[in-house]
Amino acid sequence: DVHALAAADDSAVMGEWAGLGYYARARNLLKCARVVSQDLGGRFPDTAEALQELPGIGPYTSAAIAAIAFDRPETVVDGNVERVMARLFRVEDPMPASKPALRDKAATLTPRTRPGDYAQAVMDLGATICTPKNPACGICPWREDCAGRAAGIAAALPARSAKQPKPIRLGIAYVGRRSDGAWLVERRPETGLLGGMLGWPGGAWGDAPEDLPPLDADWRDLGAEVRHTFTHFHLRLAVRVAEIAPGATPDRGTFHPRLRPSDLPTVMRKAYDLARTALPEDPS
Length: 284
What we know:
Strands 1, 2, 3, 4, 5 and 6 form a six-stranded mixed β-sheet that branches. By secondary structure, the protein is α+β, with helices and mostly antiparallel strands. Strand 1 and strand 2 (183-187) form a beta hairpin.
């Protein structure tokens, strides 16, 4: 129900999304629902061009919605479709530079009738038969027309440029619990990595960890770290814990008496799991 989502509290939605990753998607879902509910009377646009005006909807999603929901003859291209096209047309230029060419190839096949069924069929073909490894060419409905199969190189396509190693960033998570069982957490800025999510206070992540405790306390370094991989970098997060006295006032963050681990994104939950083994049993 788009109206119910539009009316939902941001923190409630982000809490439900915790642990799933790609948190910008949750924020964009909220923004999109509010535009559709408040500005468009609860009705989604039915063309790819208009759909792309909505927050968080790009070329792939707009084409998929237009084709599948509204029967528009749009070319739907995801990773599965790119792989099928690279093999079918023997496109040997490496990804991602070949993406425009693969989309052009896909457009030549998009039918004007039942485009949604066709789009789903090609995506399913890539997911179940024309798979990244060991494609089942013998049962593929396009096997006789597949230039990659004819050349004996289907499994090697699409070619990919050599990946650059991901950089490593370092940080510190300060996991503090008050004597009444309340945990000290802060909500991250709405924009950026883990935007809008609850997390442990700490400094910026970078080549060297920023030592920025949220308040004066007897912080103990656990001598262990959380390791987590984001899309563009690896994170190594040292964990420091402290029992915080009643009445302490933090420089950053607030105390949550009913914090659930499920409210936290995965990297912060890893820090919680590590920290709670070093703290006395929760008094609450």
